[in-house]
Structure formats: structure tokens, C-alpha cells
Amino acid sequence: MSSTTTNPNNLSTVAAARMANPFWHRIRRNPLTLFGLFLLLLIVLMSVFAPWISPYDPTKIDIAGRFAPPSAEHWFGTDEVGRDIFTRILYGARLSLGVGVAVVVCAGLIGTVIGAISGYFGGKPDQVIMRLMDIVLAFPALVLAMAIAATLGPNLQNAMIAIAIIKIPVYVRLARAEALALREKLYVKAAVTFGIKPWRIIARHIVPNAISPVIIQVTLDIGDAILLVATLGFLGLGAQPPTPEWGAMISIGWKHLLDYWWYPTFPGLALFLASCGFNLVGDGIRDILDPRENRA
Amino acid sequence: MRQIIVKRLAMLVLVLFGVTLTTFLLTHVIPGDPARMMVGQRASEETLQEVRRQLGLDQPVWVQYFAYMGGLVKGDFGNSIRTQQPVIDDLVKFFPATLELALAAFFIALVIGIPLGILAAVKKDTGWDHTSRFFSIAGISTPVFWSGLVGILVFYKILGLLPSSGRIDLTVPPPDTITGLYLLDSLLTGNWTAFANSLWHLILPACTLAFAQLATVTRQVRASMLEVLSQDYIRTALANGIHGPVLLFRYALRNALIPTITVVGLSFGSLLGGAVVTETIFSWPGMGKYVVDSIAFLDFPAIMGFTFLISLGYVLINLIVDLTYYALDPQIKE
């Protein structure tokens, strides 16, 4: 931190602000991260206030108004049964964003616990767990997610399970590496000497201290998870129509691309903006929290 | 070096065992009744029992696993429910199209990504760097199916410049098969009409697929270049009056490329995954389109055959990448 070496007598207001809240100061200095935050905030607010923003029902069918092009009435046009695409995107945001966040947070939690246990105890169980993770990582992510989702049956819940499974190994590795270092720390050794049970040490000392790289990875992974959910939806392995999920909307819409371009284009744009928002914010947070990446 | 290779090969065997175990679990154990899934809900009890016997599902699980492994070793993935052909024959037929698409995309991603990464590193924290960062993030944020759709809309529908589907026009006879890669085969046979036509068809799908990989390549090259440029020997070279392209390419890039190889090699795996989607959008007759068509029929032998083969390829690529890494890094060699 440069501010810590500054002569206190020469502190400008900027430096004072930086010292008061260095995290926010660094986010503010990065226009791309700010832009990402703005995008996310906009999408979340629009999806929360969807009933007030749009007068239409996302599932109401109006055959007479099918395939209407974008207009003042229907900003993003209508689909093959006359539903308003803009409205469906707004309601779909709740699902797509919610599912993306839920999957990554679950994978992060499960992975951290497994990794912490694996790293803390070491030995044979650690070897077995890590080889199992190597096996999951031996598959290209999308291909394994497809195979799992197809086996479990094509629906949104199974798509979420499939994506969580392919995401877990990364968190296991991160948390294990932290746990390996943490178990050598004096305070952990002291806890052991005092006869504190291993599960309590893991819960109270290892997991809370191993969580920071996991959080960075979670923010970086959400954008990818949203895309994966949508990709499985697009391939017919995720949310099923008429659910207003972005991937499922594109899955039907792309067959009408050449005649009714707006149908797959706008849900795709929403997907791109949401994923972009998460990736920009994740990238910014990594820059701030991870000093190694910072130097590069 | 030899020790590393032996260790790495032992790992390979272990991972391959894990991959077969996974596909086995997915086909034989997790589905409540794979036979019922294969014959459908309306099939009679006799058909069901017959299929169950044929698949060996009446045997203990470990016998089933060894039978399954025995089949895989012989390249027997079973018959596709949809095409009624042996899955391996189908996959072999569609493989060259996928390989051609993936290689072309990989080539494009490298040719554009490496210079962009260097530029971003050299001009760190300038407009160039921010622009390159924005495009990288846009690249990883863009769903492959959406960039494909926008590509078709712009370059096929609006501009009318490029075709939207297939490997070659129906009116142009494909080149004689040597490798199965149309571009290479038409070059080898001197069939220029086929060459131009298949190149024309390849551009849009390959660029779509490359766009997603571009981000990975650019980010990695930038990070490794920055790392290398901050090293003492670069400062020494600068102090000795070496600068410009000689410093960048001879001193910095060669070292920066070592970590890049790992990341880029691994990204070839996601390229194979992305090919599934790209092939669907562009009706590209490769393994990806084959597996997506199979998903609609819940054609498990086809889906698992594809999963196994792609993962095998992925594991082998990782092995080659690792070995190249060891070969290139003199510190490891010693």
C-alpha cells in the first residue's frame, strides 16, 4: 500500500479516502470493474422490479400477436406464441442469475469443506480425494456436465447438480492448499496441544482462514456458471420450455433466427451482459485481493 | 526427466481408469434401469429382459465393469440407438470435421491472441491494455451459441458474405479422402475449387469458436510477459542497450511462452467442448453435432462414447503439453 509510506503531513483528501476504505478506493479507480458493478446492479434491479417495469405476463399466450418485431409496445418483440420477450428476459434474470450464484456458492462450500478436511488430515484420505478430483478434471467441463445432466434426466435441477460437480474440484484444490499451510501455523498447533477436536479446528480455524481465495474464485466462476446453465438449457438439458430461462429461450429462438432475428438475439444479449458483469467484477476483485496477480 | 515421464505416464493410467469408471457409473449404475431407458417406456417386459441380458445387466456390477472395459479396449462402445450403427464407426466418421474446426479455431486464437497479449503487456495500463482486457472479458462472457447466431445474422443474412451451414456447398464435390480434413485433402489433391469452398465454409464457425479461446490466450500471454519483463535479466539486457523487437521476441517472449503452453494446451479441451455448441449452430457435421442429436434421443451409447473419446483426447493433449513444458524449461531438465 503506497498510502502507508506517505508522509502523514502531506496526506491529500484522496489518500485519506484511500486509507479510510482502500478496497472501495481501488474499485473506484478501475473503470471496468465499476462498469461491471453497474451492469449487475441494473440487471438485478430490473429483475426485482419486473412487475412494475413491464405490464405483460411472462407466460401469457397471445397467438394473434406472435412474432411481432421490436416496437414501442414490445421493446424486444414477441415469440412464437406472442409472449413479450423483454418481459421474459426480466423474469428469466431471476432464474439465470439465481441459479448461477446458487450453483457456484454450493460448489464453493462443498469444495472448501472437502479440501479443508483433505489438507488438514493428509495421508491416504487426502491422496484418494485428490485423485478423485483429478479424474473429474480429466474431462472437458462442458462434456462432463452434458453427460451427467443427460444421465440424471434433462431438467434445471439436474443441470445444476452437473455444473456443481464439475466446479467442486477447483475449490477442493484451493482449500486444500490453504489447509496444508494453515495446519503448520502456531495457533493451529496450539489448538491441537489443548486437545481441541479436529472437526472443531477445521470448522473454527481452517475453513474461515482458507475462505479468501475461495471467495475470489467464486466471483470469477459465477459468470461461467451462468453460461454453463444457459448452454445446457440451449442443448435441451437444462430448464425446459416454457420456463423463461435465457438458454431455453435461445434454444427455441435460434431456429427462427433468419426470419425473426430478435427472438434469440435479445436473450443472448442479456446473457452476455450478465456474464460480462460478473466477470468484470470478479476480475476487479481478484486484482485487489490477490497481490501476486497485481504485480503481473 | 525420465522419472518425470514415467511418473506422468503412471498418472495417465490412473486417470484413464477413473474416466472409464465415471462413464461406466454414468451408463450402468446411476440410471435406475439403463435397459428401460434404452428400450423406452412402451416396450414389453420380454424385450426389456432380453436387452437386460444382452447388456449383461443381470451380472454383478464388477463383472459388468470388466465387460465394459473389455469393450472399450476393443473400441466397442455399443450400437447407437438413433443411427443403429456401432458408435465407434459413427464417431470415426464425424471426427475429421471436428478436428478441422478445432484446429482452425486454435490457429486463429493463437495468431491473434499472442500479439494482443504482448501488446497489452508492453503497453500496460494504457488504452491498449484496457481495450485488450475488455475484449478478453467480453470473449469469456460471450456464450458460444450466441456469438455464432450473431455471426450468422451479420455475415450471412445481412452482408451475404459467408455461408451459414455445412462444410462445403452441395454443388461442390468434396475432395478425395486422405485425412478427412477437407482443407488439407483438397490441397494435397490440388482440388482448388473444393479448397476455396471449404475454406469459405470454415471461416465463420472457426472464428466463432476462436473468439471464446482468444481471451484465455491473450490474458495468459499478457500475464507471463509482464512476469518476464520484470525479471533482472531483462533489466540487464536493457542496460546493455538491447531493446525493441530483439528484447521482446528473443529475450522475453521465448520465456513467456513456457507457462502459456500449459494454459493454451488446457484450453484445447474447452475448445472441444465449445465445438459441440458451434457444430450445432452451424450444422457442422462433426462429433459435437452428432452427440447433440443423440441427446434428443437419450442415446446413451453415443453420448458416453463421445464423452469417453473426447476425454481420452483431452488427457492425451494434457500429457503432451506437460511433456513439452518439461522439454522447454531447462531448469526442469537439469
What does this structure look like?
The complex is a heterodimer of chains A (about 300) and B (about 325). The longest helix of chain A is centred in the middle third of the chain and has 37 residues, at about 85-120. Chain A contains 13 helices and no strands. With about 300 residues, chain A is an all-alpha fold. Residues about 1-10 of chain A have low confidence and may be disordered. Helices cover about 75% and strands about 0% of the residues of chain A. Chain A has a single domain (about 45-295), classed as MetI-like fold (Orthogonal Bundle), CATH 1.10.3720. Chain B is mainly alpha-helical and about 325 residues long. In chain B, helix 7 packs across helix 11. Chain B starts with a helix and ends with a helix. Chains A and B meet through helix 6, helix 7, helix 10 and helix 12 of A and helix 1, helix 6, helix 7, helix 9 and helix 11 of B.
Describe how the helices and strands are arranged.
The complex is a heterodimer of chains A (296) and B (334).
Chain A: H1 13-20, H2 22-29, H3 31-48, H4 50-53, H5 85-121, H6 123-137, H7 141-152, H8 156-182, H9 186-193, H10 198-234, H11 246-253, H12 262-289, H13 291-295
Helix pairs in contact in A: 1-2, 3-5, 3-12, 5-6, 5-8, 5-10, 5-12, 6-8, 7-8, 8-10, 10-11, 10-12, 11-12
Chain B: H1 2-29, H2 34-39, H3 45-54, H4 61-73, H5 87-122, H6 127-141, H7 144-158, H8 182-188, H9 192-229, H10 232-239, H11 244-281, H12 287-296, H13 300-328, H14 330-333
